[in-house]
């Protein structure tokens, strides 16, 4: 599977699709069980007994069983997972958009934690942290040598506990400590702004429980600022997915009432479903549906104005559902590069108060019946990341690169030529990784790709040209990557 990269967060976002997936939440598991294979279960019990009695040192029984469950589930596909108490808590935080911490969006830069933005009204915001600040120590632990996930875990904790961050602020050339009291943070998954008169940019970073509320609030602010909106760019680049309901609801904001958004199909009758652009198919919580609650003016604009959807290799799962629905209904022009290719749905079934099973239960299909599993969605217009091309796109892992990925509709065992093509992609990924590390050595602290939504965002500028009917600088080198064919047995 290539190298596990410990570099700037943007290169690894595609891989997050394996951890943050399109899910349906169910309170109880199925009551009826299939007949049990008694002979195999007797073998399992025998192995358990041998380990307990014969292993070189005592083994914790509970850990042995949970490890066996985790191994059984992980052998199915990259997205099925057993959640122990800790991982289930982290999963729920990821989909709820709530966690206990200091309240900063971060990336890694030159081995340090860089503040991308403090979350508004968070403890870090009130403590005066600024975008661009570099965190060099978390309590007494130097950040150098930590991965981004290790740094995040150290900054999170229990409510009302304190953490001291040592901050280097470049523009003031000073280092200083900041002690922050952790609190529950509500993340905002939607950013938006008017980028120039008549045109807006709306970015969805992932699909969480609060995404529809965030989206509705942001687009209402845009319409108040720019009532004569002429076009909108929906930015789903590096969006790893999230909740199916949120994807259906966001699609409904742009599609005619009742239009098909996505269909699913699996073994269970409940897995065979059609989701349409109507509140009963995406809004299952108390309170008014935020999409239906939009003002008449905003609803009219979203249904009518030209839309460009920006996607790339990191656009996965729920973001592919939105992109596929808007493309099939010819409601938007897709621009960028071929998406991740995660065309499966996971159901989370609690096993107890603190544990659960995330299991792949269905494939999903775009309104025209396309399965994008292990292939992805091909944009209408291929656009490179920069005027110089896709400098580091090879670093992003896609569904077809994951071991044991669910086979796509037309997949068959790989030929030797296809295995060589896969090996070539691994070589290209390694070359891109080395190129990135060399660039970072030459320009420590420099941002190698422009921030999404900035005036230096090349793909955004091409999207605006598309909306205005101006010439678009399309890629001359990007080509469609066909559906992958896994090794037989994977």
From TrEMBL:
<keyword id="KW-0732">Signal</keyword>
<keyword id="KW-0378">Hydrolase</keyword>
<feature type="domain" description="PDZ">
    <location>
        <begin position="88"/>
        <end position="156"/>
    </location>
</feature>
<feature type="signal peptide">
    <location>
        <begin position="1"/>
        <end position="27"/>
    </location>
</feature>
<keyword id="KW-0720">Serine protease</keyword>
<comment type="similarity">
    <text>Belongs to the peptidase S41A family.</text>
</comment>
<dbReference type="GO" id="GO:0006508">
    <property type="term" value="P:proteolysis"/>
</dbReference>
<feature type="region of interest" description="Disordered">
    <location>
        <begin position="406"/>
        <end position="454"/>
    </location>
</feature>
<feature type="region of interest" description="Disordered">
    <location>
        <begin position="467"/>
        <end position="490"/>
    </location>
</feature>
<dbReference type="InterPro" id="IPR005151">
    <property type="entry name" value="Tail-specific_protease"/>
</dbReference>
<dbReference type="InterPro" id="IPR029045">
    <property type="entry name" value="ClpP/crotonase-like_dom_sf"/>
</dbReference>
<dbReference type="Pfam" id="PF22694">
    <property type="entry name" value="CtpB_N-like"/>
</dbReference>
<dbReference type="InterPro" id="IPR036034">
    <property type="entry name" value="PDZ_sf"/>
</dbReference>
<dbReference type="GO" id="GO:0008236">
    <property type="term" value="F:serine-type peptidase activity"/>
</dbReference>
<keyword id="KW-0645">Protease</keyword>
<dbReference type="GO" id="GO:0004175">
    <property type="term" value="F:endopeptidase activity"/>
</dbReference>
<dbReference type="InterPro" id="IPR004447">
    <property type="entry name" value="Peptidase_S41A"/>
</dbReference>
<dbReference type="GO" id="GO:0007165">
    <property type="term" value="P:signal transduction"/>
</dbReference>
<dbReference type="GO" id="GO:0030288">
    <property type="term" value="C:outer membrane-bounded periplasmic space"/>
</dbReference>
<protein>
    <submittedName>
        <fullName>Putative CtpA-like serine protease</fullName>
        <ecNumber>3.4.21.-</ecNumber>
    </submittedName>
</protein>
<dbReference type="InterPro" id="IPR001478">
    <property type="entry name" value="PDZ"/>
</dbReference>
<dbReference type="Pfam" id="PF13180">
    <property type="entry name" value="PDZ_2"/>
</dbReference>
<feature type="compositionally biased region" description="Basic and acidic residues">
    <location>
        <begin position="406"/>
        <end position="442"/>
    </location>
</feature>
<dbReference type="Pfam" id="PF03572">
    <property type="entry name" value="Peptidase_S41"/>
</dbReference>
<dbReference type="InterPro" id="IPR055210">
    <property type="entry name" value="CtpA/B_N"/>
</dbReference>
């Amino acid at each position: 599977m290539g190298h596990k990269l410990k570099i700037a967060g943007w290169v690894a976002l595609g891989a997050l699709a394996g951890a943050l997936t399109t899910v349906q939440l169910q309170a109880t598991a199925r009551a009826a069980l299939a007949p049990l294979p008694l002979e195999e279960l007797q073998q399992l019990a025998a192995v358990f007994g041998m380990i307990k009695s014969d292993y070189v040192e005592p083994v914790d029984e509970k850990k042995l069983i949970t490890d066996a469950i985790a191994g059984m589930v992980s052998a199915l596909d990259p997205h099925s997972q057993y959640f122990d108490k800790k991982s289930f808590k982290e999963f729920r935080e990821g989909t709820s958009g709530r966690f206990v911490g200091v309240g900063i969006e971060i990336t890694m830069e030159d081995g340090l934690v860089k503040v991308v933005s403090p979350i508004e009204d968070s403890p870090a915001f009130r403590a005066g942290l600024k975008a661009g600040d570099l965190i060099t120590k978390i309590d007494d632990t130097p950040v150098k040598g930590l991965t981004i996930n290790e740094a995040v875990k150290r900054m999170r904790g229990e409510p009302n506990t304190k953490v001291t961050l040592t901050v280097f602020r470049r523009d003031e050339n000073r280092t200083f400590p900041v002690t922050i009291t952790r609190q529950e943070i509500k993340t905002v998954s939607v950013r938006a702004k008017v980028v120039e008169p008549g045109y807006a940019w709306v970015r969805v970073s992932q699909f969480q429980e609060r995404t529809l509320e965030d989206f509705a609030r942001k687009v209402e602010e845009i319409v108040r600022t720019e009532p004569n909106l002429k076009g909108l760019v929906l930015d789903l680049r590096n969006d790893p997915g999230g909740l199916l309901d949120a994807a259906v609801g966001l699609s409904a904001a742009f599609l005619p009432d009742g239009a098909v958004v996505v269909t699913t199909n699996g073994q269970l009758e409940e897995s065979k479903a059609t989701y349409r652009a109507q509140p009963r198919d995406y809004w299952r919580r108390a309170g008014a549906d935020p999409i239906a609650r939009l003002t008449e003016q905003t609803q009219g604009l979203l249904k009518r104005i030209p839309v460009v959807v920006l996607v790339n290799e990191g656009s996965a799962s729920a973001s592919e559902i939105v992109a596929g629905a808007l493309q099939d209904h010819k409601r938007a022009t897709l621009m960028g590069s071929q998406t991740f290719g995660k065309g499966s749905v996971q159901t989370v079934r609690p096993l107890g108060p603190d544990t659960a099973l995330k299991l792949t239960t269905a494939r999903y299909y775009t309104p025209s019946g396309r399965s994008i599993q292990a292939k992805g969605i091909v944009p209408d217009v291929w656009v490179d990341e920069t005027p110089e091309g896709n400098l580091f796109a090879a670093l992003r892992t896609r569904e077809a690169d994951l071991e044991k990925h669910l086979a796509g509709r037309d997949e068959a065992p790989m030929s030797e030529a296809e295995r060589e093509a896969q090996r070539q992609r691994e070589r290209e990924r390694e070359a891109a990784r080395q190129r990135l590390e060399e660039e970072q050595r030459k320009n420590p602290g420099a941002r190698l790709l422009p921030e999404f939504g900035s005036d230096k965002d090349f793909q955004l500028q091409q999207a605006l040209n598309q909306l205005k009917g101006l010439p678009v600088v399309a890629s001359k080198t990007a080509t469609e990557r066909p559906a992958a064919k896994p090794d037989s047995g994977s």
